[in-house]
UniProtKB/TrEMBL annotation:
Residues 760-779 are annotated as: Disordered. The lineage of its organism: Bacteria, Pseudomonadati, Pseudomonadota, Alphaproteobacteria, Sphingomonadales. This is Glycosyltransferase. It comes from the Bacteria. Pfam families: Glycos_transf_1. One of its GO terms (biological process) is carbohydrate metabolic process. CDD domains: GT4_mannosyltransferase-like (cd03822).
Amino acid sequence: MDARRADVFSFVSGRSRDEAGLIAFRPPRTLRRVALIGNYTPRKCGIATFTADLKSQLGHFRPEIDVAVWALDDAAARMEYAGVAGTIDRNDPSSYAAAADAINQSGADAVWLQHEYGIFGGEDGDMVCDFVNRLAAPLIVTCHTVLSAPSPAQRRIMEHLVARASRLMVMSSKSRDLLVQCYRAPPEVVEVIEHGAPDRPFGREDAFKAERGLSGRKVLTTFGLLGPGKGLETVIEALPAIRARHPEILYRIVGATHPNLVARDGEGYRDGLKDLANRLEVADVIEWDESFVETEELLDQLEACDIYLTPYPGLQQSTSGTLSYAVALGKAVVSTPYVHAQELLAGGVGVLIEPGCPDAIARAVIDLLDDPAELAAMKARAYARGRKTIWPRFAAAAASLIENAVARAPQAGPRTHPSLQGVRTMTDSTGMYQHAVGTIPDRRHGYCIDDNVRALMLVCQAPAIEPRERQALAMTYASFIQYAWNPDRQGFRNFMRFDRTWCEELGSEDSNGRTIWALGVTAATSSDPDLCHWARELYDEALAPVAKSQSPRTVAFVMLGAAAMLKVRPGHGPSITALADGADLLERLLGGARRPDWAWFESLLGYDNPRLPQALIEAGEALANATWRATGLETLAWISDRQRAPAGHFRPIGSETFGKPYAQLPFDQQPLEAHAAIDAAVSAWRATGDRAWVEHAEIAWNWFFGANDRGVVLADSGTGRCRDGITPRGANLNCGAESILAFQLGYCSMLALAPDIAGDSGKRVEDRTQQDRRPLAYT
């Protein structure tokens, strides 16, 4: 087998790289790599503890998941973190950008972000929005707070996270309902996983009380960072009544004052509570532990408690880790009815009381202490309820969440010609429609010359089209192009309404350049002499005015058309001039925009990026200019490297990149870019014979079939349709003309790498009417 046939062997046979020298599509590795973002210990807050618990419990119960922590830090109060992949300065946009780039390069299978408005920089933490825009891996977001009445900024942030996330985790059903009803989250991506909790034996209060010298006392406990949102003054106001009935009580308040509150007000809040206790003469039944205790010490202290109190005045709190711990340890709980408490304490697991009411707290505590049997029964109910949240179950649910978010294993592209049914469906007697709603042509947006020139190139090149249909389709698209020519303006119109009226007198420069390209390709590839003659005539009329453009992509399209024309009209002066002038312009642009890490023609990355180096390669080949050829290969290698994920699959420049200097964002990904990558790789392979370009073309081709950042299948050879791209959440289900044609033309380019497989393809395509028409996979 000669080298070039070997290069495409895996495309034809589906065999592995070990057998054919190309990329292998093996089953996914069992190891999952997850980048975990959030506050992290030793920072003293609930989210830091949750992030640490998530990492440690996955590590213990699910060792196949490798968790790399990226800790949110603060330049004003740096901390020393152990065992983290990196830190992110919460107030520095460049730090978020650098972390996102590092995470993308790490090959993480998923990114799991802990969200709370106060932990990210900017207004209400809006720096998180640009950060998630830069992440390529599927995003999981834990929504620690879901507000029913958010501010406009808070709503915007949450809706942005909802739109980017592959999976959303909440810890209560109420939060799930809010995300679906108020923030438009698709129900299927929201999962309820209750806060995890320790698995310890039941009923050890006496032993742990004895260790702390508390034997014979009835111990009430509240734990957490102190602040006005804890409602502790309400409990202190209830203590006189409780003490009068049960003088053996002790109220233990465990936890440091919140660092933000200390920075602003010192210990004023705690001092105020102590003053209140002194005035009410209950200071002697209050014990203060003013440290931030680690988890194991906290659990020990909870074990020594009879009744756990969470008198929070705010009722929107979605999660309380210490409440989960207390229930799992079998503690009776008296709480205000905030969201988490309502759900966790339902069914007699605890007692719910109205907020801000000392009398209600006193009655609930006294009733439990008056009835030891009911107190014991409530503890038993709590312990039984807590079995649902113990760490092994939490870790299993977390692992399932990760697996549901991670992209499916890549698949090799099919080896049969795509049906033209998708093209036929989008074409009427006027031309090819622009857009579709799902698979249904959308007449509201009419037609454009961009799609009709691509369609003309397709029907001139695609194999196995019955001659009469090839001619009929070609005439339709050519007629559209001819009608689009505006001799008064010396250019082509672009957009046409469904009623065949034009939307403008002159289309964009890029649409004009693409038309010149199509005319050159038609002249070079059509088997219809009359169509070739028409293409040459219109090309000659339009080339000079269109070639005046200084727009890089317009210039590249014109150059590609000129290179194609020279294959059938060697020595054609206007085409030679267009190639030479275009190559000189691109080289000048490259010199002006280049910097050490940016070997590109502009400071911006746009669409159809590989067309610029492809045009230089084609110019170098057509005019025997080694410098242009070398520059084209160098810049194509640069853009190809940027469009390849660390895992090896194709990652096209996302449309969100457009307009952002020296940036690259991964979404939305569009089929146009995969087609351009295949085409340019074919030009490079023809110029060099380097097998690496064959591999790159195949990687871009397999992007259509699930070898992508979301593991979604976009193209279906049975119908010839293709989805409109990949969003952060998966496939855009619409099947517009540009996407269908990118897929179809991409296949034609792949055939250029394997001309020997075209022999029997006609029969295979003709036989497709007898096959099942598989619908596209809706993902």
